[in-house]
Design brief:
Blueprint (H helix, E strand, L loop, with lengths): L8 E3 L5 E3 L7 E7 L8 H12 L4 E7 L11 H12 L18 H9 L15 E4 L5 E5 L9 H8 L1
Parallel strand pairs: 3-4
Antiparallel strand pairs: 1-2, 3-5, 5-6
Length: 161
Amino acid sequence: MTNSVYEFSCQTPGGTPKSLEDYQGKVLLVVNTASKCGFTPQFKGLEEMYKEYSSKGLEILGFPCNQFGKQDPGSNDEIMEFCQLNYGVSFPMFGKIDVNGSNADPLFKHLKKEAPGALGTQGIKWNFTKFLIDPSGKVVKRYAPKDTPRAIAKDIEKLLA
């Protein structure tokens, strides 16, 4: 039985596997992102948060997803370029994935099981759903797309303390 996100490996935008074990001991915020969504400006808040807290042990991991309104149709290269040019994203981004359905990425299957949404639902409803993970790799909390990075800063600060 999987208890830690460190047991997962995910694809970089270039297609190379990257073990989440590389982030052991860090506080993680895992976000499914999209480039053409009403919540896309959250990239700015996520980047600000990353700049503020990365030296204290926060890593933000972005996972582009095209499952909601086809709002991330580009290639991995196009998505990375968009994020860097428009929002100066410097936190790690991964290759495009599915977060729901039979092809859902195993990491997201685990996150949804460990931190179900409202009324116990496991499905992710939209882009910019966020999962907070403690330094031991345990999923602590799930946040809705409308929860801004600033709104969840206090929870992150508690784990970094």
